[in-house]
Amino acid sequence: MAFLTLLLKASLIYGGLLGTAALMTLAERKVSAWMQLRVGPNRVGPGGLLQPLADGVKFILKEEVTPDGANMWIFRLAPMLAAIPAMMTVAVVPFAGQVELFGLDFGNLSVTDLDIGLLFILALSGLSVYGVILGGWASNSKYSLLGGLRASAQMVSYELSLIMTALAVVALTGAMDLREIVAAQAGSIFNWNVFTPVVGQVGLVLFVIATFAETNRHPFDFAECEPELVGGFHTEYSSMKFALFFLGEYCAMTVMACLTTVLFLGGYQVPFWEDAPWFVQLGAFGAKVGFFLFLFIWVRWTLPRFRYDQLMNLGWKVFLPVALANLLVVGALIALGWA
Amino acid sequence: MVDLLFYVAALLSVLCALGVVISENPVQSVLMLLGSFLGIAVIYLLAGFQFLAAIQVLVYGGAIMVLFLFVVMLLNLGDPEVQADEPLFHGRGRVTGGLGVALAALAVLLTASRGTALAPVETYLWPEGGLDPLLGMAEAMFGRYVLPFEAASVLLLATAVGVMALAKRQRTKRAIAPAPLESKEAAA
After folding, report:
1. Is B127 inside a domain boundary?
2. Would you say residue B24 lies in a domain?
3. DSSP B178
4. How far, CA to CA in Å, does B45 sit from each of A88, A211, A250, B53, B121?
5. CB–CB of A224/A132 below 8 Å?
6. How far out from the chain centre does Cα A197 lie?
7. A10-40 b/e with 16+ CB inside 10 Å = b?
8. What is d(CA A186, CA A184) in angstroms, rounded to the nearest whole number?
């Protein structure tokens, strides 16, 4: 029974993640069309809803091309390395509290609850950079290599600020278990970490921007910067291998949106309704995550791309000092007993 | 089950460590090193150190090895055939390498002959009271062994600075040589 429950929850959560990633590819085009006064994909299914499915079929039917002189092993390994760690991270995300259905108790709605859930996500998302770097290197093409190099420098730089900011929340809560972090924000809306004076707001802004850099999203998508690098690290990839990179990126975005929600916006907590039933909690979580996913698209179609040196300056000379100062202030608040 | 997983992870990390030295392609070497680190992370997990395993993956897997790859990829920009001509091990390298392997093998044999490899760690970090393993480690690191711990970090820093100073001196010497382009490739 316990195993069946776990299997059911795991398949539902992974199905949900992949479904969200597929819908995001559609939403990306629909929202961009809306922002640019176009129509967007509307031929397949009602309102273009089946477009991701059509894309999937197209990816599978496309010819797989391997460039001359590519390192075959690493060339094949890279898309897997990009997609798998990104998908694994969702295992520790708490989607809702206790689930009871038809009189049966299914436990908490998440695949598993780890004591070190936050570290688990950060460690695995740190590994997903290998897909980008190795894909760029193994393609045996200068554009791909440059894309991979940029990705490696960028992700290491912003990972620092990301971790420092998350660490401030850990210090405030005293736990790395994501479910405990959510539980600590129960009750009034002002218990959410984002409403902790100054450090909450600074933390949220830093974390969201670092997330953009960490997932290689616009305005920091230098790994695939089209005007400079053709397609960047995935220039030489075709067919399902390319689709895996795509899938990895959207899964990473979804999980990072979940993590931002958990750390700063109270996770699945419904304001002023502490013991809400699980479907209401799931709805609240979905709404908060949906906002951040929309933000990803919104920013992509609004801001122009940075320059690479601007990105590095911002990461090391602004973000890291501010994140450190943020952590210091949190430490001081705790030492003074104000938080 | 745990024993089997331990042997698989140990074999993986040892084989990967061998691969680091043997493989001719530097990028492959870095990948092998990554595999070795991940194997070690699995061993930490089996010993009950979730936190240590996550930090191992986060710091070594996610940050340090990425920097290694970055540097290796920059070095590798030259013609790969130039590097392939060089012999894998040089005279002195063979001796020190062989000695290292022999020492490592001796250590493995000694550990194996003492029964299960994980037992001593368990008895130290899980005393009768059932202390949290992380707490036990923190107590050991910042309490009883704080001086050696800090000394080791200073030593590592000194080593890093020393390596940089040595590498820098070699490069300035080479720069005086008549054909700077060739010598640069040889260094890579």
Report:
1. no
2. no
3. S
4. 17, 28, 29, 6, 13
5. no
6. 26
7. eeebbeebbebbbbbbbbbbbbebeeeeeeb
8. 6
Count of Cβ atoms closer than 10 Å to residue A68 Cβ: 7
Q: Give me Rg for the CA atoms of chain B.
A: 21
Helix (H, G, I), strand (E, B) or coil at A102: coil
What is d(CA A159, CA B62) in angstroms, rounded to the nearest whole number?
Answer: 9
Closest-CA residue in chain A for B56?
Answer: A123
Tokens 């809702």 locate to A96
Judge: B54–A123 Cβ closer than 8 Å, yes or no: yes
Residue B139 falls inside a structural domain: no
DSSP A2-46: HHHHHHHHHHHHHHHHHHHHHHHHHHHHHHHHHHTT-----SSSG
Q: Range of B168's domain?
A: 145-188
Q: State the alpha helices, DSSP H only, in chain B.
A: 2-22, 26-46, 50-55, 65-75, 80-84, 91-113, 119-125, 133-139, 146-176, 180-187
Total tally of structural domains belonging to chain B? 1
How many CA atoms lie within 13 Å of A173's alpha carbon, on the beta-carbon side? 28
Q: Which residues pair with A273 in a beta bridge?
A: A270
Q: What is the DSSP string of A284-320?
A: HHHHHHHHHHHHHHHHHTTSPPPPHHHHHHIIIIIIH
In a domain? residue B79: no
Q: What is the CA radius of gyration of chain A?
A: 20
Is B55 in the A-facing interface, judged by CB distances under 8 Å?
Answer: yes
Q: What is the pLDDT along chain B (188 residues), one digit of tens a residue?
A: 778 888 888 899 999 988 888 887 788 888 888 899 989 888 888 877 778 888 888 888 888 888 888 887 777 555 555 445 555 556 666 777 788 888 888 877 776 666 554 444 454 455 444 556 677 777 777 777 788 888 888 888 888 888 788 777 665 555 554 444 444 444 44
The amino acid sitting at B51 is: F
Amino acid at A98: Q
Beta carbons of A186 and A180 less than 8 angstroms apart: no
Contact: B69, A152; criterion CB under 8 Å: yes
Chain B CB contacts of A116 under 8 Å are 50-51, 54
Q: In the Cβ-directed half-sphere of A98, how many Cα atoms lie within 13 Å? A: 7
Cross-strand pairs, B14 = none
N-term to C-term CA, chain A: 42
Q: What is the DSSP string of A136-159?
A: HHHTT-HHHHHHHHHHHHHHHHHH
Lowest-pLDDT range of A261-275, A317-331, B31-45, B161-175: B161-175
Q: Suggest the residue from B40, B66, B81, B137 to mutate for an interface test with chain A (most A CBs closer than 10 A).
A: B66
